Amino acid sequence: MNGFTKIIEEVGGIATFSIKVFTQLFQRPFEFRELLRQMDETGSKSLILVLVTGCSIGIVLSMQSRGTLARFGAEAVLPSMLALSIVKEIGPVITSLVLAGRLGAGIAAELGSMRVTEQIDALEVSALQPFKYIVITRVLACVVMFPLLTIVCDIIALLGGYIEALLSSNLDYRLFIDKAFSSLRLSDVLFSTGKTCVFGFLVSIVGCYSGYHVKGGTREVGQAAMRAVVIGSLLVLLADVLMVRLSLILFGS
Amino acid sequence: MPQPEIVISDIYKAFGDREVLKGISVNVERGSTLAVMGGSGSGKSVLLKHLVGLMLPDSGEVWVQGQRIDELSGKDLNASRLRIGYLFQGGALFDSLTVAENLDFVLRRHTTMNPVERREYIQNVIAWVNLPDVANQYPAELSGGQKKRIALARAIILNPDILLCDEPTTGLDPISVRTVSHLIMRLKAERGITSVAITHDLLCAEIIADNVAFIFEGKILQQGQLTELRSSEHPQLRDFFG
């Protein structure tokens, strides 16, 4: 099988897998307890990573931008620039990429191990619908938790940016908040944060698909984890391009 | 004349160009134990997976308790699966759950017992496999033999009519082999369970098997009592049984 056929097969497989998620999403039984457990796995256990990422991008963005803006005598727009770039683009995309690394690989490795050790078959022969229990709960958890973690990342990044601005130019926090938020529209916040639901869906679908279909042994589990991170990250970036274009059509620049 | 509990009729299965099963036919009578023996890669585990619909034959028929398993799907297949217990080669216990949670996981979804009844029932089942003190341990904390016994407990927790065992004693020491094999024997004696066990462990086969089917390169080479197979002059059987 050549490379192109493999890609087509993979795309077809992921599309079919996604359709199966949608068709089984509203069918009983609902695995609420497992969904909550997955939300905890996805959310609270990724929190530290998101906090560190957010703080770091806020500080770095503020440090890097100040010099450039000062050259054009536009240092005063720093809070607006930070808010717009973090909330509209950097926060959602960086959070999703970081989570694609952590969760995409984690989901693929966990499901791959379950496949190799026949735990998925064990669920199947016990009439326990492994797809609902394993896949749908993880996909829903990511769809719900990605935007929440993005909001956390945005807030921490802005806080990091403010701290840097405070230390560098003793900027008053009221002025910072006023300038930062006056430049943002509600549609910017809602659309930019909302698009991470799609990123969460893509990352989890690719992770689940890669792990669920592992054949062989531990080597294939590792490959599935790597494939989940690579394809998940690429899909996040691709989807971002399409969704930014869509937002420009819907809400203007 | 009573109908056999399991009827496998002329099944073929291939993965790509590789033919794994080439026209296998075998019957298992109610309350009896069939041991399926053969070398590695002969298609034993693939055969077993056909009995619960984990794999579908390319051609041929699989009948379990008068129902054609390979044509069932959805709720009908699940209902059929609930009458079959499956002991996996590595146990396949859910490693994120404790022993008690592993057993409760199945009970909670398929019975109407309340939590107190379930806890009591689980305690009885793990006492039956002689491991009353491991309820709160995780599978990773158990030895190979203990894992197999807990996996057996999970396989029979819904009181199935049929038990399928994939290498129930592989990798165990002789004492554990005897323990697990005698538990399978007790299931037949106490509950009349029909069993099919994939094994290449002679000790296990000696203890549990009423009949033995020997598979070689996807075909049944010979079927009968273990003593008949051991005394066979067929070169493959002589190689296997030494």
Structure overview:
- The complex is a heterodimer of chains A (about 250) and B (about 240).
- Helices cover about 85% and strands about 0% of the residues of chain A.
- With about 250 residues, chain A is an all-alpha fold.
- In chain A, helix 2 (about 30-40) runs parallel beside helix 6 and helix 3 (about 45-70) runs antiparallel to helix 4.
- The longest helix of chain A has about 40 residues, at about 130-170.
- Helix content of chain B is about 35%, strand content about 25%.
- The termini of chain B are far apart.
- Chains A and B meet through helix 5 of A and helix 2 and helix 3 of B.
Radius of gyration of CA atoms of chain A, rounded to a whole number: 21 Å
DSSP strand count of chain B: 10
Query: Whole-number radius of gyration of chain B?
Result: 18 Å
Q: Estimate the strand proportion of chain A.
A: under 5%
Helical content of chain A, roughly? over 70%
Query: Spans of chain B of 5+ residues with little confidence (pLDDT < 50)?
Result: none
Global morphology of chain B: globular
Structural class of the secondary elements of chain A? mainly alpha
Give the largest chain-chain interface (CB within 8 Å). A-B, 11 and 22 residues
Strand content of chain B: 25-35%
Oligomer: heterodimer
Main sheet: strands, sense, barrel of chain A: none
Overall mean pLDDT of chain B = 91
Number of helices of chain B: 9
Strands of the largest sheet of chain B, in order across it?
6-7-8-3-9-10
The total count of strands of chain A amounts to 0
Determine the structural class of chain B based on helices, strands and strand pairing: alpha/beta
Feature tags:
heterodimer; A: 253 residues; mainly alpha; 9 helices; B: 242 residues; alpha/beta; six-stranded mixed beta sheet; 37% helix
Detail the topology: elements first, then pairings.
The complex is a heterodimer of chains A (253) and B (242).
Chain A: H1 3-24, H2 32-42, H3 47-71, H4 78-116, H5 119-125, H6 130-169, H7 173-182, H8 186-212, H9 218-251
Helix pairs in contact in A: 2-6, 3-4, 3-6, 4-6, 4-7, 4-8, 4-9, 6-8, 8-9
Chain B: E1 6-15, E2 18-28, E3 33-38, H1 44-50, E4 59-64, E5 67-68, H2 74-81, E6 84-87, H3 99-110, H4 115-128, H5 144-155, E7 162-166, H6 174-191, E8 194-198, H7 202-208, E9 211-216, E10 219-224, H8 226-230, H9 235-241
Helix pairs in contact in B: 3-4, 5-6, 6-7
